[in-house]
Specification:
This protein is mainly alpha-helical. The protein has a domain at 122-160. 71% of the residues lie in helices and 5% in strands. It contains 5 helices and 2 strands, in the order H-E-E-H-H-H-H. A two-stranded antiparallel ribbon has the order 1-2. Helix 3 packs antiparallel against helix 4 (139-146) and helix 4 (139-146) packs across helix 5. Keywords: Membrane, Transmembrane, Transmembrane helix. The chain crosses the membrane at residues 6-25. This is Swarming motility protein SwrB.
């Protein structure tokens, strides 16, 4: 009777170790997946930042291109008054090129485009909670600021 009980206990212990090994391998797989996702998120953030910087540079070049003909046409002495006709020096007979003066709406659009800023994407509660925690606020203060439950904030901070 005792030997049967010992054999059953031994088998249960082996089964327990087997299940612990399986759980350990699953946890390590999830940890690796989480690391890959974090790496992917940082790469995406970097590429979006580079893309936005490139767009900003292109926009600034466009503004320079749009504003440079305006400045050159207004300071050019070869322009006939109020006609928008520019005479270019050519060895052959004089060639006239008509340039349309920019209209007021275009100037207003250019001015508003220069003053416009890239809108900041609103943060979600998850990133706000992490930011507030990094600033030194307690979980209770974060929960009050975000109007969330204390347990929810603790989970957010635990599973950063």
């Amino acid at each position: 009777m005792i030997w049967t009980l010992l054999i059953i206990l031994f088998l249960l212990q082996i089964i327990g170790f087997y299940f612990m090994a399986i759980l350990y391998t699953k946890i390590t797989k999830f940890d690796d997946l989480e690391k890959k996702q974090r790496k992917l998120m940082t790469e995406m953030d970097d590429s979006i930042g580079a893309y936005l910087a490139e767009i900003k540079d292109e926009n600034e070049r466009l503004i320079e291109r749009l504003s440079s003909p305006l400045n050159e046409a207004s300071t050019n002495d070869d322009t006939l008054p109020d006609t928008g006709i520019v005479k270019l020096p050519v060895s052959e007979p004089a060639v006239e090129i008509r340039m349309n003066k920019p209209t007021t709406p275009m100037r207003k659009a250019l001015k508003s485009y220069k003053t416009a800023a890239i809108p900041k994407v609103p943060e979600d509660d998850h990133s706000k909670a992490i930011q507030l925690h990094d600033e030194g606020l307690t979980t209770e203060e974060i929960a009050k600021k975000l109007d969330k439950g204390l347990t929810e904030v603790e989970l957010i901070l635990k599973f950063r």
